[in-house]
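Can anyone check this?
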Amino acid sequence: MTATVPASTSAAGTTDERLDEVFAPIFARIAEGAVAREDDRRLAHDEVSWLREARFGALRVPVELGGYGASVRQLFRLLIDLATAESNLPQALRVHWSFVEDQLTALPDPEAERWLRKVAEGTLVGNAITEPGVGAIDRYQTRLTAEGDSWRLDGTKYYSTGSLYSDHILVAADQDGERVSVLVDADAEGVTQHDDWDGFGQRLTASGTTEFSGVQVSGDRILGPGYGVEGRTYATSYLQLVQLSVLAGIAQRATDDVSEWVRERTRTFTHSTADLPRHDPLVQQVIGRLTAAAYSARTIVLDIADQLDRLAETAWQDEELLDKVEFDVARAQATVIPLVLDATTQLFEVGGASITSERLRLDRHWRNARVISVHNPLIFKLQAIGDHVLNGTELPYAWSAGQK
């Protein structure tokens, strides 16, 4: 199942139509097994391999380096479509996209070009940033210490989203009191990964524990401070938009699933207003609310993606635009989250008890939306937005979680 960039593609990038030719069939195939994977809690290794073979991770890599040369908008359009098929996968690949973006920004650095070519060959990058307990409020407990001519990495991470699907893991660590990012081979000696993520939603994101015990790291794998340092960064809005694209996809899949269920349904209530549920104005109203939520979420995500495209043209250096995008993605979170949560709750109103059957697994839409929504807690975002509007207080960019 290998896909190639069409020969007619120019260095400017691949068209939407060409991208759909490559990825729409793969997304459809992934969607077919979504309920079964949910039932079995089977990690999506096969599905990730299909994406890898099609070089989905190389969407933003320039054509001349072997990628698709997609715009940020094209990337997020496809992330929404992938989330519609399987909401776990865009989240699992979330840090991969920011890693690629960092390499694009570093061009023409030879090391950045080397990594982009590896991505174009199918390489995927996961992450191990967040730590249990103390976390990184003060500093990471995961340490990088000198050992001869190289370095030794030791520590434990949690929420290692996507790392079980990846070739390399981007690890946040402390090096002599400084925050650094370390790129570790997923199969390196001393790396132990556990699928012990126990959230009630987004169960297949491979977001469990990763242990690093005496992992040898060469100097060229230490990439700098990475996410979490003070000051403006594109990464907060970019990574948050991946979460919102997941919500947009969940809303669309919920709409599709429930609409299909209603069309086939003949059973109704004695006091309903139509003989068939699909003709009932009240049921139609619920479907209308669902599709409106999906459309609104998608439109908001793509509007911010357009802003990120403009920001990328400045090499992420336009401070005014950085602030605007950060503000807009925070406001979008405050709109998209309640919109999708409400829609995935209201969908059950179209039927009686039979719509709660585990065979349908329609509950997964709310569970997945609820879990993805708490990754960047809305209560803190709303407070920051209000403080910014009233008092001009700067918005928080990259931040860490842990014990103060």
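Reply from J.R.: I decoded it. The chain has twelve helices and eight strands.
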